[in-house]
Every structure is written in C-alpha cells, then in structure tokens.
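We were asked to recover a plausible sequence for a given structure. The inputs and outputs are reproduced exactly as logged, with field labels preserved.

PROBLEM: sequence recovery
POSITIONS: 288
GIVEN STRUCTURE:
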C-alpha cells in the first residue's frame, strides 16, 4: 500500500491591473494613502506520485488579491486610530460594517502608499492597526503591504550594475508584503513573495498619467484595462502583420527587379547582336 505524504504550498497573487493603478496613484500623489485589499482564498488539492511510487497530497492555498479601495480621507483608519488612542475595545461591529460596505469579497488586509519611505518594515502604529483589525474582524491573519518609490532625476544618470537602461529619469517602485498572524504573545510577521510587474519606470515623474479617479478598483475597472491591453495587443499585431506584408512585397519586388534586370540584359545582348549583324551587312555592301 502506498504511503501518502502531505505537501502544502501557498500561492499569492495580486491583479496586475490593480497593481498598475496603485503604481500610478503612488507616482501622482505625494500624500500617504492607505489601500484596503479584498479578494478570495481557495484551496486546491491534488494527488501525485513521485519517482519512489509514493503518493503525496499536494495542497495549494491560493490567495488572490483582486479588488482595492484607496482611502483618500482615511475614514476607516481614522476610526481605527480613535479606538487605539482611546483604548476602546473592538467589541462592536462598526469596523466590520464599515469595511464590509466597500466590497462583497473577503477583506484580506491593506497596504500603504508612500513616496520615499525610509523603511520597508512595519512601524509600531502599523502593527497596532493590524492587531486591532484582526481582533475587530475576528481574523487569524492579515496581509500588510508597503508600496513606495524612489526617484532619480539627474543629467547623464548611469544605470546600476546589471541594469539595461540608461536614462536621466529613473523611478523605482518597491513593493513588499507581509502575512501577519497572531501568536500567543506577539504578532508573527512573514514576508511573502508576489509575482508582480516590472516596477521600474524610465520617464519623468511628471509624465505619469493621474489615475486618482479610480478610487475603487473592481472587476469592471480591471476589465476596462484588460480591454485596453487587448486593443493595444491587436494594434501591435496589426503593425507586425503590415510590416510582414511590406517585407513580403519588398522581397517580391526585389525578385521582379532581378528578373527585369536579367530580361534587360538579354534585350541589350540581343540589340548588340542585331547591331553586329547590321554592321557586318553594311561592311559586306561596301565591299561589293
């Protein structure tokens, strides 16, 4: 009988369109913003067998962050900080009702958007907020992300070793996320890896298109951005097709040109042959 071993893996994902909106919001606003993150969690189980013919159960915990609310006026966090400063217990459901009013999906955590943040670690205020949210919402864990940028704008700026760009404007985005659990005494922080976009921009910071109107990022906004992306992809494919058609016509024209040049050479040779024959006839007539 085969032995069954269990192997567990966690997979974290954040919607690329959502991340792009956060990136643009961070670039166009120097005011610190807090963003509520919503999404879904699912568990996927498969049975596999390794080369030793032992079966093992592969459990994948999938955490998908797909919606976000940018808190312009920090309504939620104003109330949270009021509880913290006044040492009010999170016994009522006011926080839960307030957060639940933004999305029907599960509340996963929040992230902080702040330009030129000195550290990618949580400060004490953020730890207190996370602990309060877990207590108020009855969560065993919460996610917290830090999203910041550094901007280099100087003449003839040189790339760092290993970089493949050389520009006067370099905007670097840094995104770090933690999974926070409640321990018996203190919070336990676990940095997690996310598959995210290339967060390096080589344009002037003033050229970033403001996207603050997307205060709430839902499936409709993501669909709009996906449609725009598909349109751009179709335009690129059309340009590639036109380019290929152009080069095909160019190659065909080149073949026609070579054929015409060969035909032209043959005609010239025929003309020269006729002229030689005419000269011979003329010389023969003069000799007679």
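RECOVERED SEQUENCE:
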């Amino acid at each position: 009988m085969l032995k069954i071993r269990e192997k567990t893996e966690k997979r974290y994902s954040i919607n690329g369109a959502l991340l792009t909106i956060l990136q643009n919001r961070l670039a166009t606003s120097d005011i610190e913003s807090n963003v509520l993150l919503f999404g879904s969690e699912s568990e996927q189980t498969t049975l596999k067998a390794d080369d030793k013919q032992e079966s093992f159960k592969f459990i994948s915990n999938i955490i998908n962050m797909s919606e976000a609310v940018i808190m312009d006026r920090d309504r939620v966090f104003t109330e949270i900080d009021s509880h913290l400063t006044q040492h009010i217990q999170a016994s009522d459901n006011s926080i839960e009702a307030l957060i639940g009013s933004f999305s029907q999906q599960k509340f996963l955590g929040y992230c902080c958007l702040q330009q030129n943040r000195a550290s990618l670690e949580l400060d004490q205020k953020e730890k207190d907020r996370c602990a309060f949210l877990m207590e108020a919402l009855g969560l065993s864990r919460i996610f917290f992300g830090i999203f910041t940028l550094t901007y280099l704008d100087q003449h003839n700026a040189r790339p760092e070793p290993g970089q493949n760009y050389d520009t006067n404007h370099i905007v670097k985005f840094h995104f770090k996320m933690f999974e926070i659990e409640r321990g018996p005494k203190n919070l336990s922080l676990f940095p997690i890896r996310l598959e995210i976009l290339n967060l390096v921009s080589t344009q002037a910071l003033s050229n970033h298109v403001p996207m603050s109107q997307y205060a709430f990022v839902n499936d409709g906004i993501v669909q709009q951005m996906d449609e725009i992306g598909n349109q751009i992809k179709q335009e690129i494919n059309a340009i590639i097709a036109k380019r290929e058609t152009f080069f095909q016509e160019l190659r065909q024209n080149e073949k026609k040109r070579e054929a015409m040049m060969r035909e032209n050479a043959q005609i010239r040779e025929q003309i020269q042959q006729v002229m030689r024959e005419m000269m011979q006839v003329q010389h023969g007539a003069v000799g007679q």
